[in-house]
Amino acid sequence: MNIFKLNIKLVLTLISILFFTEIGKSAVYSTDYESASKGSYACGAVTLNGISWNFCDALIGSLANDRKNGAQSARVRNTGTMTMLADKTSGAGTIGVYHAKYGSDGNSTWRLEVSNDGGATWTAYVSPTITTSSTTLSLASFSANVSGNIRVRILKLTGGGNRINFDDFSITDDVACTPVSEPLVNASAYTFTNIGCNGIQISWTSPIANDSSLVVMKAGSNVTTDPIDGTVYSANSTFGSGSDIGTSEFVVYNGSGTSLIVSGLAASTTYFIKIFEYNGESTCVDYRTSDEISSSESTVACDTCAYMTAALINSCDNLPCTEGDNEMLFFNSGNYYVSTADADITINYGSTSPASNTYGDSFTANPTAITSMNADPGCSGIYIDATTVEFIPPNTSFLILNETVCADAFDWSSLCAGGGNIYVLFSSDATWTSSGQFSNSPPLSGRFFRTIFGGCTLDYSYDNTLPAGDGAIVFWDETAGTPVSYDTDGCSLPASVLPVTLLYFDGNAIKNSSNLLEWSTSSEINNDYFTLEHSANATDFNPIGIVYGAGNSSSQLFYQLIDDNPIAGINYYRLKQTDLDGEYAYSSIIVINNQFSGIKIYASNNSLFIESNNSNISGSLQIFDLTGRIVVDSKINSNSRIGLSVLNSGTYIYQFISENNIISDKFIVQ
To answer: pTM (2 decimals)?
Structure first.
């Protein structure tokens, strides 16, 4: 019996119960497919938690490639269907089901429909189609809100023979909700970081902690459609897989967080987002659609694949470990978000080109090794087990090690000097044995690697010209091919195995209305200069200064530049790094918030004070009670005091709006 899988199943079941409890409903019908049996795709009936379903081109799967939260899940192919043959009483409030791609199959689309007339007619809910594009089970949630007797069916629409797994299906009763008011202000201060060619990380500021946010994204033009009150939308961080609220305007997030990574993006494409704050749930969900901000960011070109920077081909074989246990591969993710799913990574090695013997296409967690690596001086929290994340960010270092690695045999501290996270994948592939795989002994003429990350394939070669001592390392650059150098360093790993150019790029507001920008590199190759660029809208950038680089360096270097003329409001900055040959690359964008500097709003002695170093304050101030009713509405033209004696004791919210500022917070009247 697999206790780990049973524990995961229990956790996910509890999460499902908590989810439906939170939204004010009880999960009265659910199935996890664990007790069902149907082994063929032929049309036939299967009983799921007391209700008979008809499965056509669908079965109950329990293979290794089936995505499941326990031992079994449903699997559908072609244009298969799963249809309830009997009614569920008490209607349908929210319907939820987890879905993922089977094995390494391609994407498919599907739809969920509900009938309240015994299956005579069917209605699609929330979105015409859902796209399944991930190998990780994710929740699709539908707000049906249909009373009476109901039936549900799932129809696979496209993708041909590609298969979809479904698991943990639930229907709640249709229960009336309590009407609420929309939030008083929308999210602000959008930022885009870790910009890759296939993904972007988005962060924002919610006006009130733990507010709910609906993030909508569109390629090529502004989001123009508002969400509809009373409608619950299904979100998916893989672009194009969530609900479409308009014309290709996809929901990528729905929750109380303030950041996410959106994957599945096209290279060199501009994406626009809007974030709508909302209160309530189900038919009473109320979205704020009056002051949402539109912002955009462009993905970069996919011109640098994730590539191997070095290979430790003659490892330290400190007992009890042997050669193969401690061989290592070092990587940089290039401009890509690298999926950590087994199906998206393949490492081949061999004596002929292209290499075809697989040594890394399945990975496992190794918390013991991670703890040992982070215990070295200066490494606390640096190393992250990559099985705990869905993606490795762009321009980030990562390692692939044998799961049997003896981490205590190495000094990991040299890789930690830059302070950035280093992700680690532990190969559980049976062909990576303890006897040693990577040759470095003459007179053999050569060896070859092939790396495949997603659809990005690179081939490498090296000659066996190194001495036989421990620590033989081969280095490559982003073009792969033949090595750029060789080295032998015993059991102390050289920092150059992870040539991360930009360690960090940060900024802060300083005195005299200036912003200080600072950055650092761990190594530089043919680096001519850095250009600091500024923007007021995160789209149109202008150069404001140049700082020359070191050309070539293997030491950590530090740079800074001061912007003496930031605008009042949000300031966006990025670095453009230019090589001696004219090639250039951009950093991620950082944000410095100067919009609230000089303005102070606070409550004291039954008054609300609005003060600024600049006497020419111009804006409007509104005070709301917790029902959303406006109790004070005042124009502000100078430092002001608003009397609060007319208000009853309790909690209130103020909102000050000027040309460059939106400031909102709670305060208490005694």
So the answer is: 0.59
